[in-house]
Amino acid sequence: MKLPSHGLITGVVAVLTVIALTGCSGTPNSTGSPATSTGRFAVDSHTLVFGVVPDSAATQTNYQPLMDYLAKVTGKKVTYQQSTDYAALIEAAVAGKIDVASFSGFTYVTAKKNGAAITPISSIITKQGQEPGYYSEAIVPANSTITDISGFKNKKVCFVSPTSTSGYLFPSYSLLNAGIDPAQEVTPVFAGKHDVSVAKVAAGGECDAGFAEDSEADPAAAAGKIRIIAKTMVPGAPITISDTLPQATKDSVIKALSTVTIDQIIAAGITSANTDGFKSVFHATSPVTDNYYDTVRDICKKTNAKQCQ
Q1: Which residue, of 188, 210, 234, is where some domain finishes?
Q2: pTM over 0.85, yes/no
Q3: Which end of the chain, N or C, is less packed with Cβ atoms under 10 Å?
Q4: What pLDDT is recorded for position 5?
């Protein structure tokens, strides 16, 4: 379900400054929700708050069947909390204002680093046999003589934007691993969007090479417009659970969301799942653990990206 996985991260540094200044003034449960001897909810023991960053007008519609299924399995009311951007979702997680959330891999690591008591449960896959995640792909014009990333040195290289996970952070990591300093040894061209990066590389001239996510690069390669010379897996966006929930509730949520298929959701009577729209963005969930995001942590270490601070 290509939702937060592919979005851009904006305003994270500013909001983390706010978190740092306010985080010491109270407990993670700044909402005043009732605590029990076994755990704490974002609102109350009858409700689960599901946090999501909208990356399209259809975001809530895309998640509604999953939330309806979670409500049926747990017996609780599941409310949709829309965050304006990833920074706001991080802030909500650190403040204990969400029980379940869908992050990007990068913002999960950032939230965790800044004190969010959350654990990844699973990641959404959209097709049978698919693994969680997607690829950041290194591309060149179809007639280019460049055969590997080492050939990007001293070239004009298309990126998406400085805050794009698959369009800049992972590419910078790939360049560093190839012995190329992305800040000094390439001439960056920020295309703004993945499809524009592909188009500029295909046209040649403005960009000798570039990077884009697989959903844009693969069709262009199939059409013979570009060649893909390397790819790096970007960990799939995690569905996370708050560590502060009572254990029985956590067990129930994990059972519901760790390995559920669309057929199981439909069989449970969730009619909203039996639509072409939902089937196009959801096939199943696949379990992931915190270690799955170590590549993101390594990128933060090697690139010293400001979004990691």
Answers
A1: 234
A2: no
A3: C
A4: 40
